[in-house]
Amino acid sequence: MSLPSNATAFLKDAEAIAEAIPDGSSLGLPPDYSLVAMAVVRALVRRKAKDLKLIGVPQLGLCADILIGAGCVRELETSAVTLGEAGLAPRFTEAAEKKTLKIVDATCPMVHSGLQATEKGVPFMPMRGVLGSDLVKRHPDWKVVDNPYAKGDPILLAKAIVPDVALFHARWADEAGNVWVGRRQELATIAHASKACYVTYEELKPGDMLEDEILAPGCLSSVYVTAVAPAPRGAWPLGVPGVYGIDDAHVQTYARKAKTAAGFSEYLEEFVWHRTSEKNSSPVS
Amino acid sequence: MAPYQREELLACVIARLIGDARHVAVGAASPIPATGAFLLKQKHPSLRISLLQRRTGNPFTQGSRELFDLAGQGRIDVFFLGGAQIDGEANINLVEAEGRRFPGSFGSAFMYFTAGKTILFREEHSPRVLVQKVDFVSAPGWSPPGVERRGGPAALLTGKALFRWQKEERRFLLESVHPGTSAQSLRGVTGFDYDAPAHVPDTAPPTAADLILLRGPVAQPIAENYPEFARRVWGKQVEAAP
Q: What are the φ and ψ backbone dihedral angles of B3, each rounded to 5 degrees?
């Protein structure tokens, strides 16, 4: 598979991105507070995606719970799955307790460092801390070595992580294929480390944001971007800072319904199987 | 004494435990530690609070990666961790116990080592949470010689009591019990053994001045970031910020 490095494709909508992500892909995904491409998540459920591996950068929330509940996920590598104030992620919790899901438990900075290793084209990154945690025994890709610069100083290595796909939402894309993630620079790292990167956006800007001194530092260059697609309010029920906030009432409703398989099915019927942008109730800026 | 809520008492204890720190960071859903930090900031305006999940004006431009890099360099003085289980050697378990699955370890395995000090906080004080030995070590309470470690536990605060961590002894010392709990009754609900003085004082309740701060200038930023918590404790309704 060749890395994206030339022209960003402009796709029609979130459905087209879901079509472009093959079954069995590993997906690098942000946490609920950081620009999640929820419209694509719903489209992946609608196209009955299978055997996805979700990589939480560094943790996961609503998007993972929906994909797990809908049977789209084979494996997770993450530091946590949580709905924040709405509590435990119910479909994840049930799948974990019934052991129907392969889970590789991580800790946040090891995930970030693994992606940063890939970003730099090196095989691993050393990290402090973590030694003595049972995570080290269980994780298949972590190794403890002696610091080659000091005697008797054990140090942990995070193996380079290469997701097949980076997937997130952005406020803007432009005609040159750049996307603006603003302060969420950790999303750029997922893109740098992934073989492909798909981004939904709120609005398309004319021209090239990299020509703008103010916008450029918040941009992910099109060199990393495989394709973009419009998805107005595409993070709902999660938020896009400065545009719309997290729909807390909706997340609470989800947490309540998804406690049972039947309630989760009702949720999918109401909010996922049929395209439901008219029900989008995020608070407006 | 003015009536107060348990959450307010706990936030006041958190503020005292943070002490003279310069920079406190608050991670995943921790409304009471955040409340304690904002209360202390009312008294010490120079205190820097980095709220990882702050919804507007987030302090980081590289998300949680920046939090961990700050801690790795020694720029975070105080951090908070909880646990589905916490044991008598201050090990914490955020992953699994007795067939039940919890959210996961978050950044605990790193922050417990790198933050200057960690305040362990868990409201539920019961034998199923405070155990002899955790079923899974997300982050160890202490490290053998030769393992690089800047920080570690300073205290354990629960809904019933406050313990100090004794680094040399690797044991908790009961420091105070919250009003309404007796020191004698605490042994029965604590799964690990700990040290205690002959006389265990009550935890100091919030002062009238604390309560005015908590319900006014502290409640506002808390409601913006922990809307459910603020509604429950103060009945505070805040428009969700974009």
A: -65, 145
